[in-house]
Amino acid sequence: MAVLTGLMSFTKGHGIRALSIIGPNGLFISQAVNGVLLSAIINERNYVKLDGEQFEKLLFAFSPIISKVIKLTNTNYYTFLGRYTYNGERFIYEPYVDLMKTVTISITRKSVRIAYGENKVRLKRTRKGYTPSSMLETLGYIVRRLHGGNA
Predict the structure, then answer these.
(1) For residue range 42-53, what is the model confidence (pLDDT) as tens digits?
(2) Contact 24/6 with Cβ under 8 angstroms?
(3) Cβ atoms within 10 Å, residue 51
(4) Which end of the chain is more exposed for a tag (fewer CB within 10 A), N or C?
(5) pLDDT at residue 100 is higher than 90
(6) In what order do the strands lie in the sheet with 112-116?
(7) Do 69 and 80 contact (CB within 8 A), yes or no?
(8) Residue pair 41/146 in contact by the 8 Å Cβ criterion
(9) Which residues pair with 20 in a beta bridge?
C-alpha cells in the first residue's frame, strides 16, 4: 500500500472533543459537545453521517493520548493540528505543540507510542479497554475513504 498523507486535528477542552481528518477527497469529522456526538464524512458531492460505535470510541481513545502529550510537552494548546501518514500498518500523527516543535504519535496494532525529544511513552490500551489495533483499523477505514477508496 502507498503512503497516504493529510492533515489531522484534535481538540480537547471542557466538555468538548473534536477529531478532524482531511484527505485529498474529503473530510472526516467527529465531535462530542456536552454529550451530543456527530461523526460524518464530507466531500464535494455528499455528506455521510456515520453511525457506529467505533467512531465514538476512536474520538474518546485520542483524549488520554492527547492528555499525555499535554503533560509531556507542557504545552498550553488545546487544539493540535499536524500531518498524518498511513501505510496500512502504521498511522503517524505529528501535531504541533509549540511554534516550531512537533510530537510524534505512532499507532500500530500493538501500541501507541508518543515521542517528544528524548521523552517516550508507550500505551497498550485505554482505561476503557480500547486497543491500538482497533484504533488503527478505524483510522485505516477513514483514511482510505478520504483518499478515494470506498472502504
Answers:
(1) 988 888 888 888
(2) yes
(3) 9
(4) C
(5) no
(6) 47-49, 36-42, 26-33, 16-23, 4-13, 79-86, 91-95, 104-107, 112-116, 119-123
(7) yes
(8) yes
(9) 9, 29
